[in-house]
Design a protein that fits this description.
With about 200 residues, this protein is α/β, with parallel strands linked by helices. It is built from 8 helices and 8 strands, in the order E-E-H-H-E-H-E-H-E-H-E-E-E-H-H-H. Strand 4, helix 4 (about 105-110) and strand 5 form a beta-alpha-beta unit. The longest helix has 14 residues, at about 185-195.
Length: about 200
């Protein structure tokens, strides 16, 4: 997992509430466990019409937001069914941070397992950031060590994050990586177990 320390990037304003995981990545794109290429399905029904043509009024189709690394959106982002493909699709599209007033719990947890930083801020703060993002090609700064978001105009907002999750994001550790931090202790345990009960070992 890629570590997250700080991010300086354009922000795309997606002014919608209750965006569920089926809107983030529709079910027809869940047939793969390959994380690459999922950006083609990101917000598919919002980005494209029934004929598969890009909707010009959707923010991620706006050339001003090409390459955006931050998504600023509405309340209850990521609600609905659990699908890890949702953070995968956002990451595959280059988005490393999502800012919203609140997140669905399962989506929020999945973000930390994949290196996508979910930042929860008060509604007024999100609204202020969204209004600035609507200006187009501006750089927003997200600093995880200091737990701050800074807008292009210099507005600064602090966010809360669980210390253990913060440490893992900074180190780039998912659940597997965290386990492998204890590889030496695991190897010693397995060796002792094999010596104590050799009849349980495979032939």
């Amino acid at each position: 997992m890629q570590p997250f320390t700080d991010l300086h990037a354009k922000a795309a304003p997606l002014d919608m509430t209750n965006l569920d995981t089926d809107q983030i990545i529709p079910k027809q794109f869940l047939k793969t466990v390959d994380r690459e290429g999922l950006s083609q399905g990101l917000f598919y029904d919002l980005r494209f019409d029934a004929e598969g043509k890009p909707r010009p009024d959707f923010v991620l189709n706006d050339p001003r937001y090409a390459g955006a690394g931050v998504l600023i959106t509405g309340d209850n982002f990521g609600c609905g069914s659990s699908r890890e493909h949702a953070p995968w699709a956002l990451l595959d599209n280059g988005i490393r941070c999502v800012i919203a007033p609140s997140f669905a719990d399962i989506f929020y947890n999945n973000c930390f397992q994949n290196g996508l930083l979910p930042v929860a801020l008060p509604e007024a703060a999100v609204r202020a950031l969204m209004e600035e993002a609507k200006g187009g090609n501006h750089v927003f700064s997200i600093d995880l060590p200091s737990q701050t978001v800074m807008s292009p105009s210099g507005q600064r907002f602090s966010f809360e994050i669980d210390p253990a999750r913060k440490a893992k994001m900074l180190a780039g550790l998912d659940a597997i990586g965290e386990t492998l931090e204890h590889r030496q202790e695991i190897d010693v345990y397995e060796m002792r177990h094999a010596l104590a009960q050799p009849w349980l070992e495979p032939a």
